[in-house]
Amino acid sequence: MDLTVLIATYNRAAILGEAIEGVLAQRLPPGVRWELVVVDNNSHDDTKAVVEHYIRTSAVPVRYLFEGRQGKSHALNAGLKRADGEVIAFTDDDVLVSPEWVATALRVMDRSGADGAGGRILPKWMTPPPAWLANSARLRSYLALVEAVTPQVLSYPSRGPGWVVGANMVFRRSVFSEIGEFDVALGPCGRLPVNFEDLDMVERALRRGLKIVYDPDLVVCHRVSAERMRKKYFRRWAFTSGLALAVRALPPRGHHVVLGRPFWLYRRTARAFSKWCVAALLRRPYTLDMGVDFFQAAGVLWWYPEATRRVQRREEPEGDLRAR
């Protein structure tokens, strides 16, 4: 296979079909061999039936995998072991791709000589967004939207407006042979949106000296439901993302600890709370941003013991992708 499209999904049978149809509608040059692999991460809805419909009716090879260990990284790793493509293109079950998406991904990889690539993720608003969201690039980025229009070669630490996100991400298979699989301590797990498994993979590749590019020609659309356009959604997202931030940046040992947490985390959370209160009292336009900062700091503080446990019980990568 030249390319595998890989989708990990959890309890989204109602919208999964639209995502699959977008992938299967690709227009590709003759001779390109590709497949779609959908990994069901322990769903309790009709996900399997949805995928089996396309297995029966699609001219493109479609495969269904079940991964019972909860967590998106477990599902992605299971898909990697079964994928036959020399290039792996990742997207999500709430993302709509254009008919040129796969062809563009292959073209971007070929002309840049990159080991990995990503591109724009534009919103498909399911209802009109409120002004406070439409006018805030920062809040839109929390929805995994990437709207930069300038191509760039990524570097570590990250600089510039472009970044690569799992909803629109392509890697050569050789990348995983070199740097390993997705970190199972990261990634959404059931209803807990831990996230950052994609960012972690990109950063590991960059630290290893691999070439990752951002190309705005590579475009997908991300469904944004009405529930994700509420201020409480951003506060909850910020709080739960604290778990991933703690996993990714556990401080060195030796800090003064109170109730299982380093004391400096209490100070940082208190500072974030005071800034939010001041902004609210003065009715500053950035009050919501300050509130998000506080909930994220509070999340790191709250989830710190769980992050420590996750890091301690990280599983060794299973299988050997080099054999592929």
General description of the model:
This protein has 324 residues and is α/β, with parallel strands linked by helices. The protein has two domains: 3-229, Spore Coat Polysaccharide Biosynthesis Protein SpsA, Chain A; 231-312, no CATH class. The chain is built from eleven helices and eleven strands. Mean pLDDT is 91; it is low at 316-324.
Question: Which key terms come to mind for this protein?
Answer:
324 residues; alpha/beta; Spore Coat Polysaccharide Biosynthesis Protein SpsA, Chain A; 9-stranded mixed beta sheet; two-stranded antiparallel ribbon; 11 helices; disordered C terminus
Low-confidence runs: 316-324
In DSSP terms, counting alpha (H) and pi (I) runs of 4 or more, how many helices? 11
Largest sheet: 9 strands, mixed
Give the % helix.
Answer: 40-55%
Distance between the termini: 11 Å
Give the full name of the CATH homologous superfamily of the largest domain.
Spore Coat Polysaccharide Biosynthesis Protein SpsA, Chain A
**Overall outline:** globular
CATH architecture group name of the largest domain: Alpha-Beta Complex
CATH topology of the largest domain: Spore Coat Polysaccharide Biosynthesis Protein SpsA, Chain A
Short description:
By secondary structure, the protein is α/β, with parallel strands linked by helices. The chain is built from eleven helices and eleven strands.
